[in-house]
TrEMBL record, chain A:
<keyword id="KW-0472">Membrane</keyword>
<feature type="transmembrane region" description="Helical">
    <location>
        <begin position="37"/>
        <end position="61"/>
    </location>
</feature>
<keyword id="KW-0812">Transmembrane</keyword>
<keyword id="KW-1133">Transmembrane helix</keyword>
<protein>
    <submittedName>
        <fullName>Uncharacterized protein</fullName>
    </submittedName>
</protein>
<feature type="transmembrane region" description="Helical">
    <location>
        <begin position="12"/>
        <end position="31"/>
    </location>
</feature>
From TrEMBL, chain B:
<keyword id="KW-1133">Transmembrane helix</keyword>
<feature type="transmembrane region" description="Helical">
    <location>
        <begin position="288"/>
        <end position="312"/>
    </location>
</feature>
<feature type="coiled-coil region">
    <location>
        <begin position="642"/>
        <end position="669"/>
    </location>
</feature>
<feature type="transmembrane region" description="Helical">
    <location>
        <begin position="447"/>
        <end position="469"/>
    </location>
</feature>
<feature type="transmembrane region" description="Helical">
    <location>
        <begin position="35"/>
        <end position="56"/>
    </location>
</feature>
<feature type="transmembrane region" description="Helical">
    <location>
        <begin position="68"/>
        <end position="87"/>
    </location>
</feature>
<dbReference type="InterPro" id="IPR003661">
    <property type="entry name" value="HisK_dim/P_dom"/>
</dbReference>
<dbReference type="Pfam" id="PF00512">
    <property type="entry name" value="HisKA"/>
</dbReference>
<feature type="transmembrane region" description="Helical">
    <location>
        <begin position="332"/>
        <end position="353"/>
    </location>
</feature>
Length: 81, 898
């Protein structure tokens, strides 16, 4: 990739790897406990919480690295009509 | 129950609203104020991923399997984490080479192979049918739930109803997707309508969720508390219910992986994410907005499912319409209707985009090659855009009717989610060829063909055919293995039992797919065209505008223009040639059909009929020299040579420009210097001359007057000679001709001596001098006279600028590390930041132009030269209003003997 803009590849790959781990067996067995969080069962709450956490992390990473690059992004990002 | 007339009326009204939205989107695009050039709309349009499967099927799945509805949405979350890397590359490639479908993408990568394009299209059509059937089934089931249904005996009436629905949806898809032939560009209206639908289905689903959770129950906690009273529901939310026994972990992983691939490979996702992408940078925001959208639309799935089970006491097929039946059972008719509209949005959005995408493939990669193959068609001229559109329209209708057929054949036997997964597994077969092709240059056409063919055959055998067998269309004995061969049983291949059918099928199909893809790629040799396309794909980011063109041969511009006219229409063909003429700087009539022009025409045609067909058409009008692998390498070499030259040229230009700037400023400096010197010389000369003339003209001048005049003449002459000396001095030092008499110097003593020499100056200005000297400093090797010159310069400078009567000058000497540092600080007006850089320039005097103190303006430049020659550095520290602090540092050892 020519220009260094947007979030760095390593960070994205690391997030993806973390997501894969947290969303799958055997980590699921950790969430699968007969516990409740605010009266709700842990398993779905954990899955949704991890999900929301990943969205937030992605949003943060994108805004942090992308915001600066966006300003001087040349027009060749544009699809020519 | 709701009257059928009302439901139909509202549905139709809603579809008309969609058409209006689309028309508005098209109109805005026409005005150049695109509605969809916006990352939020772009992300919403990705929401087409949530079809009726999500809307109705998820609740059904949750009612029977708890959290098992989730992996289908967790996969996209994981995929989106990599969207900026993978999707952006896909978008860049598709845009660079005018790729408009997934079949085109794969075929183009592997040497523009028509065979590969046709194969991908076939897999897509066959694989996508269950998915389309799913939408039809969901909408018709929803309709039944809403109107109370025709009852079991009225089935004949309803079946026709589904058919009509399929037909009317085909009509809408035609309206949205094939109004004009602009596939190389975008369907702005369609995207706007789909984004609108995504918003509607989310709002409707959330409305139902809030109604059930907070209207019928006292919040999620309340639902769960009540559910715990019923063990079969309570079990749902732990994995123990169905247990992590054996291979359930594998199934969860399979679902995650499958949806991760599908979110990129499904024709409608490819259409929305890649083909309709307005600006690559939108991916950045859309990649987190989209999973956030998925999260929102799923948040109430479990509450609705469990709430429904608590109220209706079942968890079977009825659960798929809880979204409708729950509000309906509580008399919330309008909410039920809104929910139905949401479901309709989900289903129609999917069907419209999917059929438009598939029709493009069918037209470009199945029908066109067949037509082009027949000689009669190829010879005939004329504009073909009309024909292309009609082929696409027919393809949309055909795909929907086939979907309807599958709905009848197999639709009843499966739940919505299972039907959808069959399609997911089909499109997952594209992943190795597509993703591999983007990153692995060594992948070949044979590998892609083998992988796709093998993978999809295994898919059909282990997943598609069993789905038909279940419905009784193939003898049920087939499930135990053809001709009683147990080890070939489609759902227990080679005795691999224990998996669910999806995991089983995906494992075997992807295994065969990847093995053939890699194996055949490694074994065979890529042709020249494959190698060149591989390069263009894998290195799409490395090449800017200067992409190599892999074409050699001869063609006539007239032929190319006629060809472009046939597929693009006369107006656009004309524009294409005019653009090319302008960019190459030749007259329109003098255009030669060089490689660039041929490439340009081919790409434009590819936007309309696909890369493979475009290749065939260009071949038909040009005499091409077949390229060998060596030629390809040569062209790549040339291109990279050109790139290197271009970069070198650019660098050289930059250097030249910098040098030129420097020369210019030096020249300017010299002019300034000359004019300053002459000006400085003229002032004393003028006064000397005036006084001398006066004395000549007045012979009877008084002695005391004469004495006064002569004193002035003397001091002006001294000033003149001082100036001349300084200019000469500076010139000598600058040119390195000055003589240096370096000896050991006690800097402290030098400072004291310099102060003594300037004491008179300070006394005149009424300034106080504060000394801050250490007792003992090491000796320096330096020229004491020169150094005194510097000190006197700095001191007299300070004396000039301190305020009259209240001046205070601080002189300090410090030993810092390997240096001796002298600072002279005054409490004058200081130097403005913008002037600080220039104080050491010649004739750059401080102060306002009007009340500039006396001086030659050469003191500081000379000081700088002297200090530099002694191996030290000189600087200014100043804040306006707080005085100026000049300092210099000299190395203790002294300069190297000059």
């Amino acid at each position: 990739m020519r220009r260094r803009d947007g979030p760095p590849a390593q960070v994205l790959l690391a997030l993806c790897g973390a997501g894969f781990l947290l969303f799958n067996f055997p980590m699921l067995l950790v969430w699968d406990q007969p516990l409740t969080v605010l009266g709700l069962p842990l398993l779905p709450v954990a899955l949704f919480a991890i999900w929301a956490g990943l969205v937030a992390a992605l949003a943060w990473v994108s805004a942090r690295r992308g915001g600066r690059g966006a300003k001087d992004a040349p027009d060749d990002n544009k699809v020519d009509r | 129950m709701i009257q059928p007339g009302l439901v139909l009326g509202v549905s139709f009204g809603y579809l008309l609203l969609l058409v209006a939205v689309a028309a508005h989107g098209d109109r805005r695009a026409g005005q150049g104020r695109s509605l969809i050039d916006n990352s939020f709309v772009y992300a919403l349009s990705w929401g087409v991923y949530c079809s009726a499967w999500t809307y109705f099927g998820s609740v059904g799945r949750a009612a029977s399997g708890g959290v098992w509805f989730l992996p289908i949405y967790l996969g996209p979350m994981l995929a989106m984490l990599l969207a900026w890397l993978v999707l952006r590359k896909m978008v860049r490639i598709a845009r660079s080479y005018r790729i408009t479908s997934i079949a085109d993408f794969i075929a183009s990568r592997y040497g523009k192979s028509p065979l590969l394009a046709a194969l991908v299209t076939l897999i897509t059509v066959v694989g996508i049918l269950p998915y389309i059937a799913l939408q039809l089934k969901a909408v018709s089931a929803g309709y039944e739930a809403l109107t109370g249904g025709p009852g079991q005996d009225g089935a004949a009436w309803w079946r026709d109803g589904t058919l009509y629905m399929a037909l009317s949806l085909a009509g809408f898809a035609v309206v949205f997707g094939t109004r004009h032939l602009d596939l190389s560009e975008r369907h702005e209206g369609m995207v706007a309508a789909i984004a609108f639908e995504s918003a509607v289905k989310l709002a409707a689903f959330l409305a139902v969720g809030v109604f059930v959770t907070y209207g019928l129950f006292g919040g999620m906690g309340d639902i769960w508390a009540r559910a715990q009273a019923q063990p079969q529901i309570a079990d749902l939310l732990s994995l123990d219910g169905q247990g992590f026994q054996g291979f359930h972990g594998a199934q969860w992983f399979t679902l995650t992986l499958l949806s991760m691939l599908s979110v990129l490979m499904l024709p409608r996702q490819f259409q929305m994410m890649v083909v309709e992408c307005v600006n690559e940078r939108h991916i950045l925001r859309a990649s987190w907005l989209f999973p956030a959208y998925l999260l929102l639309i799923n948040i109430f799935v479990l509450p609705i499912a469990i709430g429904g089970m608590l109220i209706f006491g079942d968890g079977g097929a009825g659960a798929e319409s809880y979204v409708l039946t729950l509000p309906l059972s509580q008399g919330a008719v309008w909410l039920a209707l809104l929910a139905y509209i949401g479901g309709l949005s989900a289903a129609t959005g999917m069907i419209i985009v999917e059929t438009v995408a598939v029709s493009t493939m069918v037209c470009n990669d199945l029908v066109m090659p067949a037509l082009l193959g027949s000689g009669r068609f190829a010879r005939k001229g004329g504009d073909l855009t009309r024909l292309l559109l009609n082929i696409r329209r027919a393809a949309i209708l055909l795909v929907l009717l086939l979907g309807y057929l599958y709905f009848h054949v197999a639709g009843e036997a499966y739940a919505l989610v299972s039907i959808g997964l069959i399609s997911f597994a089909a499109v997952a077969q594209f992943a190795p060829a597509l993703l591999g092709g983007m990153y692995w240059r060594g992948a070949t056409r044979a590998g892609a063909l083998g992988g796709l063919l093998g993978g999809s055959l295994v898919w059909a055998y282990t997943l598609m055919l069993p789905s038909l067998a279940r419905s009784g269309w193939i003898g049920a004995g087939f499930l135990d293995g053809p001709m009683g061969l147990g080890f070939l049983a489609p759902q227990r291949l080679f005795g691999m039992a224990g998996f669910d059918e999806l995991t089983h099928s995906l494992f075997w199909s992807l295994l065969v797919n990847v093995a053939l893809y890699v194996g055949l790629s490694l074994r065979g040799r890529a042709s020249a065209r494959e190698a060149s396309q591989a390069l263009l794909f894998v290195e799409v980011f490395e090449r800017g505008q200067a992409q190599p063109v892999f074409w050699r041969g001869r063609a006539r511009p007239e032929d190319l223009r006629r060809l472009a006219g046939r597929f693009l229409g006369a107006a656009r063909a004309e524009a294409l040639f005019r653009d090319h003429a302008r960019e190459t700087g030749t007259a329109l009539d003098n255009l030669t059909a060089d490689a660039r022009l041929v490439d340009r025409v081919e790409r434009q045609i590819a936007g309309a009929i696909g890369t493979a067909s475009a290749r065939v058409m260009v071949e038909s009008v040009a005499q091409e020299e077949p390229l060998s692998l060596g030629d390809v390498l040569e062209i790549i070499d040339e291109a990279s040579q050109v790139r290197i030259y271009a970069r070198e040229l650019e660098e050289a230009t930059v250097e030249l420009r910098a040098a030129n700037e420097k020369l210019k400023s030096l020249d300017q400096l010299k002019d300034d210097f000359m004019s300053s010197v002459t000006h400085e010389l003229r002032t004393p000369l003028t006064s000397i001359r005036a006084l001398t003339e006066l004395m000549l003209d007045t012979p009877d001048i008084q002695p005391h007057e004469r004495k006064e005049f002569l004193a002035i003449i003397l001091s002006e002459s001294e000033r003149l000679s001082r100036l001349v000396n300084q200019v000469l001095d500076l010139a000598k030092i600058e040119s390195g001709m000055a003589e240096w008499h370096n000896t050991d110097v006690d800097l402290k003593a030098l400072i004291v001596a310099a102060l003594r020499a300037t004491a008179e100056l300070f006394r005149e200005r009424g300034a106080e001098v504060v000394l801050d000297l250490p007792d003992q400093v090491p000796l320096l090797l330096a020229d004491p006279d020169r150094l005194t010159q510097v000190l006197v310069n700095l001191l007299s400078n300070a004396a000039k600028f301190v305020p009259e009567g209240r001046g205070r000058v601080q002189v300090a000497l410090r030993e810092q590390g390997s240096e001796l540092v002298v600072t002279v600080c005054d409490n004058g007006p200081g130097v403005a930041p913008q002037d600080q850089a220039g104080v050491f320039d010649k004739f750059r005097q401080g102060g306002e132009a009007g009340n500039r103190p006396q001086g030659t303006g050469l003191g500081l430049p000379i000081s700088r030269q002297i200090i530099a020659n002694l191996g030290g550095r000189i600087w200014l520290d100043s804040q306006p209003g707080r005085g100026a602090c000049f300092g210099f540092a000299l190395p203790k050892g002294g300069a190297d003997g000059r």
